[in-house]
Structures are given as structure tokens and as C-alpha cells.
Amino acid sequence: MSTVLYDLPGPRTRRRHRYYGLAGTLVLLALAGWVLSLLFRTDQFTTGKWTPFTYVGIQELLLTGLGNTLRAFGLAAVLSLALGAVLAAGRLSVHRPLRWAGTLLVEFFRAMPVLVMIFFIYVALRAEPLTALVSGLALYNGSVLAEVFRSGVNAVERGQGEAAYALGMRKTQVMVHVLVPQAVRAMLPAIISQLVVALKDTSLGFLISYEEFLHAGKLIAANLDYDLPFIPVVMIVSPVYIGLCMLLSWLATWVARRQRRSPKVDTDEVAAPEPATLRPDDHRAHG
Predict the structure, then answer these.
(1) Is the pLDDT of residue 142 over 80?
(2) Residues 165, 68: Cα–Cα separation, whole Å
(3) 153 in Cβ contact with 88 (< 8 Å)
């Protein structure tokens, strides 16, 4: 069997791909072993360097920073989705001024670096660190999500909207009840990917003294009295960020799986046909 784009690989090609995969795995294992050897050589796994993380004060500092990170991410995610929906609606509008305004805002905020917007809001507008961080993340990620939403809606077959208009539905009804539900499945991976970007960008808050997770790690490393204190801190902070991003990806996979399982239309059982009863007119007609 073959596909439209390419032929399926034969036995030799599959065997060669297995060799490539094995070689790539060996290279990654060798790289991981080299990194671990460097860490052992610099005594990064000694008891003295990990004992401070058993103190209650350091654990509470890390948990507080993690809570602040999740708080900033939650606010930025909600505002980004809302702003993206508004900007996408503007770009899809049939009114030219709204479409131009939406395009201008999307292109401007998408082109501006996140850090520049955060610093501008923090310094020029004298906002609180949390407000500046969330606002900068929402403006940037909202403008990117606006393009995701617009592309997803435009990817739906044109006939779907035309059929809805033919039934007498208004533009808002067509968008809400017909186009957006069909576009959500296609948009979901891109939405989750952009939310992962927003989660990682919350670490920029330490530059404006927002006490998030990375800022807590920086405070801990600054108060440790041994060489290379940042390495144990990074070895604790990094897996947490990776775990949160993997959790978001798992959530997207779970939602997509539920959407595939859920029926589109609930069908009712149709009663079996029964013999029809002839009317008196039918008797006269047959007679």
C-alpha cells in the first residue's frame, strides 16, 4: 500500500531506519553520560550541596515561587485566549475599519519582543510586577493566538458557512454554532503550544523582581556558600518546568481524544415500519 505523497518503506528501508534510531539513541545516551560525568567530576551530587533543599524555609520559598508562576500563567492564559478571540473576530469582520484595526494590533504586538513590552509596562506605566508580566504575556500571546483562531476558522470548508447562511442564520450564529466548533479540533495543538510558550515566558518575571519560581531559585542560589550553586538549583527548577509543559501537552491530548470519542449528533431510535391501514377511498379505488 502507498500514500499520495510517498510509498511506504520496504523491509530494507525499515531496517535502515531502525539502525538510524539505534544510532541516535546511543548518541543521546553518550551525551547524557558525558554530562553526568561532568557533574560527578565537579561534585554536584555530594550531600552538602543537596542538604539545604531539605530545609523547610527553602521548600516554602520554592513552593511560593511555583504558586506565583502558576498564578501569572493562569491570568496570562485566560487574557491571551480572550484577547486572541477578540482580535480574530476583528480580522474576520466584514467591516473594513474593524478588519484594519485588528490587523494593525495583531502585527504590532506580535512583532514586539515580550521583554520590551513587560519592561515598558513596568517602567513607563509604573505597574506592579504581576500586572506588567501578565499584560506583556497577554498582549504577545493573544496576538499570536488571534492568527491561530483566524487560520482555524478559515480552514473550515466554505460550504459549511454557506449552508448555515442558507438556513437563515446570522454571522454570529454561524461563527459560534458552525465554524468555531469545527475549527477547535484543528486549532487545539497550536493553542496548547502557545500556552506552553506563555508558561515558559513567565520566567521573565524575575527581571522585574516578580517572585516567581525562577526568582526563588535565584535567591536560593545567591545564599548558598559553595561553588557553582546554580547547578543544583537548575536541576530542581528545570524538571518542574518540563513537567508543567508535559502536563499541558497531556491535557491537550486528553481533550482531543474526548472530542474524537464524543458523538457529533445524538440519534434517536426509529420505530420499525408497520403495515399501513387502507382508507375507504383506497378500497373504492381498488374496486
Answers:
(1) yes
(2) 47
(3) yes
pLDDT tens for each residue of 202-211: 999 988 989 8
How many whole angstroms separate alpha carbon 108 and alpha carbon 77? 20
Three cell numbers written together for 113? 519582543
Q: How far apart are CA 118 and CA 139, in angstroms?
A: 10
Give buried/exposed letters for 6-36 (b at 16+ CB in 10 A, else e).
eeeeeeeeeeeeeeeeeeeeeeeeeeeeeee
Q: Let me know the angle formed at the C-alpha of 33 by 27 and 39, rounded to the nearest 5 degrees.
A: 140
Beta bridge partners of residue 7, listed in sequence order = 2
209 φψ region: left (φ > 0), alpha (ψ -120 to 50), beta (else): left
pTM, 2 dp:
0.77
Query: Is the separation of the CB atoms in 262 and 184 below 8 Å?
Result: no
Cα distances (Å, whole numbers) of residue 167 to 40, 159, 204: 71, 12, 50
What pLDDT, on a 0 to 100 scale, did the predictor assign at position 116? Answer: 93
Percent of the chain with pLDDT over 70: 86
| Inter-residue contact 99 to 90 (CB < 8 Å) | yes
The x, y and z cell numbers of residue 130, run together, are: 504581576
Per-residue CA distances from 184 to 77, 150, 218, 243 (Å): 17, 11, 39, 25
Residue (of 104, 65, 12, 50) closest to 214 by Cα position: 65
Q: Give residue for cell 469545527.
A: 182
